[in-house]
Amino acid sequence: MNIRTKLLAAVTAVNIIIISIYVIYASDIKRDAVYSRIDGILISSAYSVTPFLREWHEKTAKTPPTEAEYAELMETLSEPVKGTGVEYLYAVIEKDGKLFFTADAATPEEYASKDFSAYMSAYEDASPKVAEAIKTGKPQYDEFTDDWGTFRSVFLPLGSIGGYQTVICVDYSLAEIKSEVNSAILGALWRGGLLFLISTTALVLLLNPIIKNARSIISRLESMSSEGLDLRSKVDINSRDEFGKIANHFNNFIDTTRAALSDIMGQVEVITGSGRRLKTSVQEIYGGISSQGQEIEMLMQSLNEMNLSITQIAESAVETSQKSTDTLNITSDSRKSVDTTVA
Fold first, then answer.
1. Measuring CA to CA, how many Å separate 169 from each of 12, 45, 107, 268, 313?
2. The whole model's pTM is what?
3. Is the dihedral of CA 171, 174, 180, 181 positive or negative?
């Protein structure tokens, strides 16, 4: 794996991590924003009908409404929530530990199709948050499922009206919320993917000159190792980053090496010249020594000849001396004979 692949893999991994964190963070932000907006719609819808429903419950606590009055109530309650995305708006009271419908928002079409909760009909699968709202006296939010669907709801307590704890309930389809959240997450994913493509493209463009410089240095070193030490060519410097500095130092190294080798070659030439001159001197000395040797040899030969002559002369002198001695002896003997004869 070359350095380009390693760098791309490393930075791509970092990009994926960063973009994943961004997508998760952006998705959470979008989700929170969606829920905050939906909760705002729910609570504002509940508060918008609070005065009317408070009056309604005070009135119906004394006298139950007629069918026409209930139908008029349903149409009146449906007006404030039109176009808000609210699925249901209704009110319940707690009586003998059970919950009963006392108001419901319905359009004329829903009323005609009987798609509404009748007055004082039992609410059997209510969210536990209704009881908590009654208990705490504070609005409660919940996601729950009942016979009408799965909702994100708010339960706004009105306190005791006519002797009964009263709660306004507003439902928003959870499927719609999740669809909006998913759209927000998908948007974050698209943005994350776009950022990934942009950052990766920018990375490739930034890496190209760096890799080019690195390859130039590697190619130069390979050339030196395979073809021999060539100190004439240099590495081109195309950047001022770390690779540019490496190339610059490499070129300086080549210059220094070339200068050092040039100096060494000069010293070698000087030493070679000195060696040649020394060789000539040695040869001359050797020639002189050879000539002197010949002269000495001739002198020794003459000395030997003189020695031989002296030896011969000495031998002749010894021989002559011997002969003289013999002659003297003979003469002495003759003299003695003469003396004897004379006597």
1. 50, 10, 17, 105, 166
2. 0.58
3. positive
Question: Beta partners for 99?
Answer: 94
> Which pair of tokens denotes residue 40?
């705002």
pLDDT digits (tens, 9 = 90+) for 10-40: 878 888 888 888 888 888 888 899 999 999 9
> What are the two backbone dihedrals, phi and then psi, of residue 87, each rounded to the nearest 5 degrees?
-85, -50
Contacts of 71 (CB under 8 A, 6+ apart): 111
Q: Give the CA distances from residue 312 to residues 53, 192, 317, in Å, rounded to whole numbers and listed in that order.
A: 174, 129, 9
Identify residue 283 by its one-letter amino acid code. Q
Q: Do 69 and 56 form a contact (C-beta atoms < 8 A)? A: no
Q: Is 59 part of any domain?
A: yes
Q: Give the number of domains in the chain.
A: 1
Residue 180 belongs to domain spanning:
22-186
Residue 338 lies in a domain: no
In whole angstroms, give the CA distance from residue 233 to residue 216.
Answer: 12
Quickly tell me which residue has 């990375």 as its tokens.
Answer: 203
SS3 126: coil
Does residue 227 lie within any of the structural domains?
Answer: no
In the DSSP assignment, the letter for residue 63 is: S
Q: Residue 275 corresponds to which tokens in the numbers above?
A: 């060696």
CATH number at residue 98: 3.30.450.20
- The lowest-confidence range among 135-139, 174-178, 252-256, 315-319 is 315-319
